[in-house]
Amino acid sequence: MLEKILIENPFIVSNDASFGNQKGSVFIEGETITRVIMERETNVLEELRIEADEVIDAENYILMPGMINSHYHSYTNLFKGTVNDLPLELWTLYTVAYGHALEDEDVYYAVLLGCIEMMKAGVTSCLDHFPHIGRSAAALSAYEESGMRVAFAPMMHDVPDEVFFGLNLPESLRTESKAKSPDEMRSFYQTLLSNWHNREGRIEIQLGPNAPQRCSQGMLKVCKELSVTEDLRVHTHLLETNAQRLQGEKQFEGGLIGYLDQAGLLNEKLSVAHAIWLNREEIDRLIEQNVSIVHNPASNLLLGSGVASIPSFIKNDASVAIGTDGSNCGTNQNLFEAMRLTTLIHRVNEPDYQKWMKAEDVLRMATHSGANVLGKEGELGEIATDHKADLVLLDSNTSLMSPLNDSVSQLVHQENGQSVHSVMVNGKWTVREGKLVAINEEQVLAEVRKRQASMLEKCREPLGRADKLRPYFEQIISK
């Protein structure tokens, strides 16, 4: 039998236009919200109290949809504080070098570490753009254990950055590519899909081309083929830096947007992270093709990449979600911070205050638009009948939420996660009264600390190679 839970009398921030923001109650059967009841419907509420297996007294609490971190790299949780003062092309050399140290157990604990941080801050779903594909089973096992919802997008790439940028490296710094071929990636994905896709109703697989310039035509062809035959969404980095834009225009007709279009990937199944260095025509093309944009304000600022033209997408009703990116580019995995940054940074260059994005717009980016990125529109991102029960209960009696004058404004402008009381994913509690249900937090933290020294020792040689490559890549960013 399905467990029935009644969350009674919270202030509901629903994202559902028909219900709005008001006091009410929510009835959950199994993994699904089956009733959203207005405060005045007292007779209905009395009936549901009798029917419920569990009744949560949520007076003086706020109930909101679970937030969705739409661009994230789990492995970086182990490398906080390592590379925070470099632009992307140089930063990439070092994050790749650190990644050479990872073993299956490191990846397993990196995923759990991120789940701890996200769920305790009200994030119920993430899109993990995952580069270490040989460690996929370890990562997915951790997600399965955590109770969190994930769209897992293993990276596809077979063109190194030095090849894309045409760098003339000395023989001593050239290495034989270990990237999988397009055919190998097809087989990899087919196995992954059979083993993990739609596991427990929380784990799904997406296609994850690293970036269009890092994929050959053959690799993008396999990506398109799998997207069609397996009905999979696609997630990629796009035009994160000016150097990528300039080189893309030299190398591909129509630049990197044209390259994606030629591969048949510009459509409603595609989500793109960053999308900073776009001209007006390219912005319009992405909007016309219903491509979802994932804004990563913190990493864009820390890496000096630029400020994406997010208001241009929003005013044209494009789907714009929010991501945190990696922990080793100065971010945390807290969407409250990402929402606040999103609200603020786009005001600086907009003198007309009437065009500033409102808190309501940004909250929908972190919830409803994230559902689009996961292919779960109509299932996630709202508190509404027949939606999945991915919910966050916040205590309104905290310093950040008291007095409660405007719930949405305060969630976006003041909240940092400290008010999060309980979290539910797919109808099951993953956080209760601030404590994780399925993850032993103390054990995870202890294991991460224990593994740190040996892991960093294994990075020495790759980091030395990154130091030697750095002068060649500095030529790119000095142009």
In short:
The protein is an alpha/beta fold and 479 residues long. Helices cover 39% and strands 20% of the residues. It contains 18 helices and 19 strands.
User: How many angstroms separate the termini?
Assistant: 64 Å
Give the DSSP E fraction (strand runs of 2 or more residues). 15-25%
Helix content: 25-40%
Q: How many whole angstroms does the radius of gyration measure?
A: 22 Å
SS field, number of helical segments: 18
Give a structural overview.
The protein has 479 residues and is α/β, with parallel strands linked by helices. The chain has 18 helices and 19 strands. Strands 1, 2, 3, 4, 5, 6, 16, 17, 18 and 19 form a 10-stranded mixed beta sheet that branches. α2 runs antiparallel to α18 and α13 crosses α14. It starts with a strand and ends with a helix. The model has no long low-confidence stretch (mean pLDDT 96).
